[in-house]
Structure formats: C-alpha cells, structure tokens
Amino acid sequence: xxxxxxxxxxxxxxxxxxxxxxxxxxxxxITQKVKELTKGELKITEGALYPALHxxxxxxxxxxEVAKVDNRLRKYYKLTEKGEKETVNRLAxxxxxxxxxxxxxxxxxxxx
Length: 112
Hints:
One of its GO terms (molecular function) is DNA binding. The chain is α+β, with helices and mostly antiparallel strands. The protein has a single domain, classed as Winged helix-like DNA-binding domain superfamily/Winged helix DNA-binding domain (Arc Repressor Mutant, subunit A, Orthogonal Bundle), CATH 1.10.10.10. About 60% of the residues lie in helices and about 15% in strands. A three-stranded antiparallel sheet has the order 1-3-2. Helix 1 crosses helix 4 (about 80-105). It starts with a helix and ends in a 7-residue tail after the last helix.
C-alpha cells in the first residue's frame, strides 16, 4: 500500500473485524487473511500486528487462549463482549470516514 500510515490507522479495526467474522484467530492467520482478502496489497508485519493485539487485549477488547497444535503452543485471540460492541462502533466510524473521503475525492460540484 502506498500510504502505510493510512493502513496503520485502520489496523485495530481490521483486526476487530476479522475476529468478529472468524470467532478466533492466531497472529499468523490474521496476517495471511489480510494478504488474501487484499490480493497481496496489504501486508501486516509481525512488528505491527503483535503490538496492536496486545494493546487491544490491554483495553479489554480481546482475550487470548493458548492451545497446543502439532506439539506447538498457539495463542488464539477472540473478541470479548466489550470488543464486540467496540467493533460495531469502530466499523461505523470507519464507514463514515470512507464516505467523507469519497465525497472529498469525488465531489459533487452541482451542490452549491
């Protein structure tokens, strides 16, 4: 993505939305799902993802559970009840922001 600052500002909302859809996911799975959904346009690095996950967990929006998979421990993240409510709010804010940006980038000049 050309402007990674725009992406970085949306990372928490992206994580919350994915967890809302999937129920629970582990870190690498999140990075791969974003890559898949954006056809490789957006790539989340571990350096960006894990601080975001830890911040969301500290805010009480996520909880983590550890499971043993193929003799390895894997940390899964899922939304808390507070996280479910916050996801709805953040998605509404993001959609409003996208609408506003669309209106600025593609103005209707007939409105005076």
